[in-house]
Amino acid sequence: MKKNPLKPLDIPVIVLAAALAFFIGSSNRKTISSRVVIKGQDKTWIFPLEAEERVSVTGSLGETTVEIQNGRAAIVSSPCSGQTCVAAGGLYKNGQWTACLPNRVFILIEGAKDHAVDAESY
Q1: For position 118, what pLDDT does the model report?
Q2: I want to staple 65 with a disulfide (CB 3.0 to 4.6 A). Which of 13, 25, 77, 107 is the partner?
């Protein structure tokens, strides 16, 4: 006759440990959020993507204005001639970036990993 390897309190301890591990794992995912990193020539700003901010960044050509609003970050004005950075629109996904190269201003969205599929191949 085989003996039961579990003692009477083993099952409640296992269930409690599993529930605790699930709770800790799910609470960590909720606290990690995306952030906006704005780099100018001499200074770096970091804001949560949920912030409502307007930042003037001094570059080599003058002032570039970056706006964070409604979960998006965008260059809204810049002294560069091409205005490609302004036309790029709002950034909202992790890993997205834009730059005003003539004015030496860089914006990056970083933080928790997105779980969306980028591409598929067969």
Answers
A1: 59
A2: 77
